[in-house]
Structure formats: structure tokens, C-alpha cells
Amino acid sequence: MKDLFGKAILDFQTNNSPEDLITATSISEEDEMSVQYLFRSYNEMPKIEQKALQLASGKVLDVGCGAGSHSLTLQNDRNLDVMAIDISEKAIATCKLRGLENTKVQNILDFEGQKFDTILLLMNGTGIFGKLANCNQYLSKLKSLLNPGGQILIDSSDIIYMFDEDEDGGKWIPSEKEYYGELEFTISYKGEKETTFDWLYLDYNTLQNAAIANGLQCELVLEGEHYDYLAKLSI
């Protein structure tokens, strides 16, 4: 991976002529995404993210932290002990420049040695699972990192609305897909194109079933305005 996402984040932080990211998926056209959005304050965040940050407590792990906006809110406004991790070196460099005290370049599947009271996976937190078949691996790992009484706060969207309906109200979903929420994602930045990667959107019922299969309770905390939701998983 070229880490173009991290490059855009670091360019914005260091005022190095940042540009919009161009994103595309296997079911949607190219779309511009402002890097500035990743640097939003608490008041600029969607209600689902605000709710997750309100519910966060104890020792917190922020998985896929990006520019670190969620962690900064918890560290500076809530005075919580937060560790922010991301696979992007440049994103973590940005987090450090922004004043995050506890950061690490880390894939969650390789994380060892600490347990947490709250684990956050926000901005379509299920995305990093990549494929439906990987849910058990990720949920099992996340569960192993929880303290007794701990919680996983994760958001996603049911993207069934993106598929065409037939006359009877049924959906036309490509038959080669194992699950309609499995997408291939591409990012372009400053004329460079990132290696395509798998990205997973999970409807709530499918997440709930996966959670139960891994010995986790699943609670629907909040539904957003556009098929999105926040869920709380606990042992």
C-alpha cells in the first residue's frame, strides 16, 4: 500500500498543499472527500460518533484512528486514557503532531499485551473486516482485548439502499457477491492511485448474528438518518 490516505492526512496537518481524496467503490462512481473532514471537532461530528464518544469510558482503544479526532476529544475533553492505533504510519505521525500522547502503528489483529474498557471502531468500523468471512477473526480478537465489563462501540451502514429495486420491491444484487456489503475500495490522491482493498459494510442483523456467534451481546444504540447505526458489543 502507498498509504495515500495517510499522506493526505499528513499533508493537511503540515499545510503541504493538501488536496481532496478521490474515493470509489465497486458499486459507486468516483467521489471527492475533503481531508479537512477527518480533522473535525466534536461539535462537527455526526450524532452517531458523538454518542460513541459519550459512551466511551475507562481505558480506551481507538482502532483505525485516522487523523485522531475521536481520540483527541476523549483525551482532551474527557480526560480519558486513550491509545490510538492505525496501520498508516503517516496518520500516526499526524496524531502525534496533533498532541495525542499514546499512539502506535499497529494492525488490530497483531495487537497484544493490553486490555481495554472501551474499544472504538468508528467511520464504518466494520470496514476493516474486509469480508463477511473475516468477521469471526476480528470479533474474536476484539473480544480478547476487553476487560471484564468492557464494551466495543462500532458503527456501520446497511447499504442495501444502493441497489436497484425491481417492480415487486426486491433488490437486484450481483450474484457473484457472497454478501452485498462487501465492496472493493479505491483511493486516489494527487494523481496517484492506491492499491484496491476490501471494505465491509454490515447491516445490523448480520453484525448481531456474528457477535452472538462469538459470545458477545449486541445492542443497537442509535440509528442515523441514512441507514447507519451505532452498536455496542459486550461479553
From TrEMBL:
Keywords: Methyltransferase, Transferase. Gene3D superfamilies: Vaccinia Virus protein VP39. GO terms for biological process: methylation. Residues 58-180 form the Methyltransferase domain. It is an enzyme of class 2 (transferase). Its EC number is 2.1.-.-. Signal peptide: none annotated. The keyword Methyltransferase applies. One of its GO terms (molecular function) is polyprenyldihydroxybenzoate methyltransferase activity. The keyword Methyltransferase applies. InterPro entries: Methyltranfer_dom, SAM-dependent_MTases_sf. PANTHER family: JUVENILE HORMONE ACID O-METHYLTRANSFERASE, METHYLTRANSFERASE. This is Class I SAM-dependent methyltransferase. It comes from Flavobacterium flavipigmentatum.
